[in-house]
Amino acid sequence: MEITYAHDTLKDADFTLNSILDISNQGFWDWNALTGHVYRSIGWYRMLGYDHIVFKNDVFTWENIIHPEDYDRVMEHFESYIHGDIPEYRIEYRCRKSDNTYLWIQDSGKIIQKNSDGTVLRMIGAHTNIHDFKRSQEKLLHQNELLMNDNLSLDALVKERTEELNLINKKLQVQIQEVEYNASHDRLTGLYNRREFESIFEKEMHRAKRYLYPLSVVLFDIDDFKKINDTYGHKIGDEVLIGISILVQKIIRQSDTIARWGGEEFIVIFPESDLENTKVKAETIRAAIDREIFPKNLHVTCSFGVTTYLKEDTSDSLFIRCDNALYQAKNLGKNNVQEG
């Protein structure tokens, strides 16, 4: 006799479905493009080893755990699908786990609801763990290479050389990390340098355009900094720069990005922050610097230019507008915030 199961209410059916999703080895996701909210099943967090409360329920959570080497490829595939250039969303890539290792997954998704203009409104999908398969595949390829080179009979020598190579690679990795850090950070303050900031800003501009999120920028400059250097010397000037860097980092959010723009200028990206909110944040920073006592009992002030990303903007046009706002703040007596 065939046994069938029925649910008395839609709520009962949803409960059963969610229970199935939670115990599944797959990680399911549901993106509402209108609100930006992304639901992720318990299985999604379990697969990657995260507690389900550590992340915000938005697309940035997903983007931020994609392996840097896979990121551009995944974004290109995703955008091609939601714009209708390809018929299917299915791609393999690596995601960062809670222990900072990476897991190979297959990401499959489907648009189930569109706006009247044809743009995506809702999309659902699943992450499937294919890590063991990929590792087995890599191992098989490696073994084939060994066979082709007649190396299987040299296991002992291979092991010895592998250990030597691992040691060299560890030392090389430390050197590479130091080089990469020095290439992307300002040596004095430890903040991102201008080159790295421009790279981060391009990425944030694409995100703002892709998801229609607000994005604002604050450029600020230490007032009369030359007088500080001329009167007290460059060492005290450097301590002022470091002090301001530390102070601002305590005020801004973890999702914001600050960099040393050059000389006595700093710049901050505020994702998901419109012009009015960003002006309030800039005023908070200005007031904190104004109250701070720096070395030699110095009273230091800064002038601020604030602007927000417009859909027709390039990075150059936005930076010019921000710089003009800063110039206006200087002309209006310094130690104030102006918008551009």
What does this 3D model show about the protein?
The protein is α+β, with helices and mostly antiparallel strands and 340 residues long. The protein folds into 3 domains: 10-132, Beta-Lactamase (2-Layer Sandwich); 150-184; 194-339, 2-Layer Sandwich (Alpha-Beta Plaits), CATH 3.30.70.270. The chain contains 11 helices and 12 strands. The strands form 3 sheets. Strands 2-1-5-4-3 form a 5-stranded antiparallel beta sheet, sandwiched between helices. The protein has a 5-stranded mixed beta sheet with strand order 7-8-6-11-12, with helices on both faces. Helix 8 (225-232) packs across helix 9 and helix 9 crosses helix 10. The longest helix has 30 residues, at 155-184. Residues 1-5 have low confidence and may be disordered.
User: What is the topology, as strand order, of the major beta sheet?
Assistant: 2-1-5-4-3
**Helical percent range?**
40-55%
The Cα radius of gyration reads 26 Å
- Low-confidence sequence ranges: 1-5
Shape: globular
Give the helix/strand class. Answer: alpha+beta
**Alpha-carbon distance between the termini?**
75 Å
CATH topology of the largest domain: Alpha-Beta Plaits
Task: Assign the CATH architecture of the largest domain.
Answer: 2-Layer Sandwich
Biggest sheet descriptor: 5 strands, antiparallel
What is the H/E string?
Answer: HEEHHHEEEHHHEHHEEHEEEHE
